[in-house]
Amino acid sequence: MIGWLDCAAGASGDMLLGALVDAGVPLSAIQEAVDALAVEPVLLSAGHVTRQGIAATKVDVNAPRSTVTRTWANIRGQLEAADIPEPVRRTALDAFARLARAEAAAHRTSPEQVHFHEVGGLDAIADVVGTAAGLHALGIRRLTAGTVALGSGMVRGEHGHVPVPGPAVLALLQEVSAPVWGGPAPYEMCTPTGAALLAATVTEWGTLPPMTVRTVGTGAGSRELDEVPNVLRLVLGEPLSAAQPGSAVLLEANVDDLDPRLWPDVLESLLAAGASDAWLTPILMKKGRPAHTLHALCGEDVVERIREAIFRRTSTIGLRYTEVSKFALDREEGVVRVDGQPIGVKIARDGGRVVNVGVEFEDVRRAAVELDLPVKEVLRAATAAAHRTHPSGSR
Fold this sequence. Notes:
Blueprint: E1 2-6, H1 13-22, H2 27-35, E2 43-51, E3 54-62, H3 72-81, H4 86-107, H5 122-138, E4 142-145, E5 148-149, E6 153-157, E7 160-164, H6 167-175, E8 180-181, H7 192-201, E9 204-205, E10 211-220, E11 231-239, E12 244-255, H8 263-272, E13 277-284, E14 290-298, H9 303-313, E15 320-328, E16 330-338, E17 341-350, E18 353-359, H10 361-371, H11 375-389
Parallel strand pairs: 1-4, 4-9, 5-8
Antiparallel strand pairs: 1-11, 2-3, 6-7, 10-11, 12-14, 12-15, 13-14, 16-17, 17-18
Helix pairs in contact: 1-5, 2-5, 3-4, 4-5, 4-6, 4-7, 6-7, 8-9, 10-11
């Protein structure tokens, strides 16, 4: 099962909980995970509402007033001690760790010194743990999401008025390179809790991925908006087989009179122009002249750009054009960290099963410079972290 989140009206903890319950997660399963925390009693309730005529589920978190000042260390200890499934614990810890880093950056302090205030309240703890438990209950193997609406204007916080989107929200979504926009409504549409949960659970950003839709869960936000239905939709389904035959164009030229030192620039320029791949093959031409065949694989929509780049940057005066079929696996991007340095990861799936995991070498090289370590050590650590996160054969 894979999932896609429609964040056209933003995201918050209660919207995510509502979407999960609407998609079929028993409220009792979420309540059980929340009850496992050593905090004051928190009661969840769910009801049916409409937002601009769209039926949705609204989950309310009923928590008593608390005078406890919670730090990241307090919350981490409670999560580590709670009797909850390990995947739920990992997701909740990840979400709160991201919140701690974002709040620390906003207030220029360390994560351990952050007093969470709103995002550390009982309701947010319930939102984070409840969402982690709901995703675990559905057995979602991969969660994707569309562009996130953030809102605009001002919102009152613990220390006064805060501009929307808030510093923490921007920091959280920047960390995972999430696509965002202001959105149509002049309100806070994405909360820090919602942003942290998206950052901790979404592995790929974009439009609805190829799938056979099984169910749709719709979670409601607190207020009725005039500008947009205030709902978050969770679309669940089975992935289509990723290795479907597709079409591409192969452009080729034999070149025997180009300075070999220019080839790296040629290949880089073709990739920048939109080629999906570009490479050289050493050949022997007539009269025993050594040469290279330049190959560029691309889509029909960028053929003209690739053609122009080849003629501008090489000495060839002709090109071969071949329409080819190819198989392409479903791919997604992720991030692992080596001593705090982010390193991009590419994961390839066949029918939802991981068959290959690779790290971005340029990120490895940059991290090695930042950490003053040999590239081979950072590469080894990043590769091991990537395989731990996405083991081969997993779904």
